[in-house]
Design brief:
483 residues, alpha+beta, Methyltransferase, Cobalt-precorrin-4 Transmethylase, Domain 2, Heat Shock Protein 90, 4 domains, six-stranded mixed beta sheet, 19 strands, 34% helix
Length: 483
Amino acid sequence: MNKKALSNLIVLGEGFTTEFKRSGASNLGREICAFANATGGVILIGVADAGEIVGVNDHNRLKSEVQSIARSAEPPIAVDVESVGKVLCVNVPEQHSKPYSFGGKFFIREGASSQQMARDEIREFFFKEGLIHFDETPCTNYDLERDLSPAIWQRFVQRTRLPAGLEMKTALENLHLIKVGKMTHAGAWLLCDDITRYTLQAHVTCAMFRGTTKTYIIDRKDFAGDLYTIYEEVMAYLQAKLNTALIPHARGRDERLELPEDALREALVNAIAHRDYRSTANVQIYIFHDRLEIVTPGGLPAGMREEDLGIKSVPRNPLLFGMFYRMGMVEQVGSGIKRIREMCRDYGVAEPVIEVSDNWVTTTFKRPIEEVIGEVEPQPESQPESQPESQPESQPESQPELQPESLEMRVLILLSNGPMAKSALSSGLGQKEISGQLNSIIRLLLANKTIEYTIPEKPSSRLQKYRLTEKGKGFLKKGEESQ
């Protein structure tokens, strides 16, 4: 780092990856540990909180002290220490042996400060880093005597092709589905009649819409048996709702689904096997006029990047994934995305588009609607105006022009009273929690420039609020005049 780079860094101020220290090494272990548990950062010793360079003396002694502090973390943290003028710069690269502790305590970077993690935060951190797998943890709601019926066991034996005559509990222990006398979550999900008794949001929701948005729902169904049954029933739903072409040949004619069935099966297995089962959302499958979306909660598992898709596999639920392989639901470990793409190419349809965010993975298949023979308009069932309970935050939708009674206009009316956080807007709309619908509306209004951030330089800040722009005030005024 040179003096110009240092000056530019100081101008930006303290933040998620930058910390100023006026002098010495007090609390330095806490800061180094916090950066190591996050994405790395730099500590500038000799810079006051306001950004004034005050400098430090005896850089060699201080460098040695910094390295000693970093080595005393558990495990030791690699840092790079350099002098830039009067300032000592401590660079903490992103580390790969998380979590790190210092003095027996765990710290994490939050905004522009370092905080000690509470017990629940430490547990969450271990899950996030893939150090604990939820599918392997005991399911306290599952009672082996009450819930593991002979019929469920026999069904499981057939699906897993276990030899006849095996003692039930011994077999499940050898499969690691029972640990220390308790059924694991993976076992509970596979050996049940209603998965929501054990994990409320483990079901799968399918919905079909008229057109290309979620404005008009035609059909919706929730699937909540065991995971294998859910997989089979969802596939039957897709086969029933998607269009089928009749292909004549010398022996008669064959039915050809508009999208390759094997690719849909692979994508569905991926969604069920790799989702985050601690999330309050469930797997959602949307059928639109022009596309089919499979939306999976949880983002990518620890150790996976978007560019790794189709190249390597890091199961979020390795025990569950191993059971799927044993059941023949997965043909070759680590080949799912690659196989889906190859099957779509061979079938003559577009490869799916995979979108990744922190909380969602969405796989979108383009429907070849212009090539389908005998398309039939599905008949609407009861409650045609209902909507799926949760909509993924990463899916912006096209919206009509703002109407006086629309939710968009209600958000603008709330903001006419002054800047508000997303949670306050949610409460003002009468929602119990921030919904995917509200997130979509906020993104739309931001894109329309009718609202803006109060902290535009940090869109994801926990202190972020939203306020009306002049354009938004104009919409409100126009709405009032039209009433």
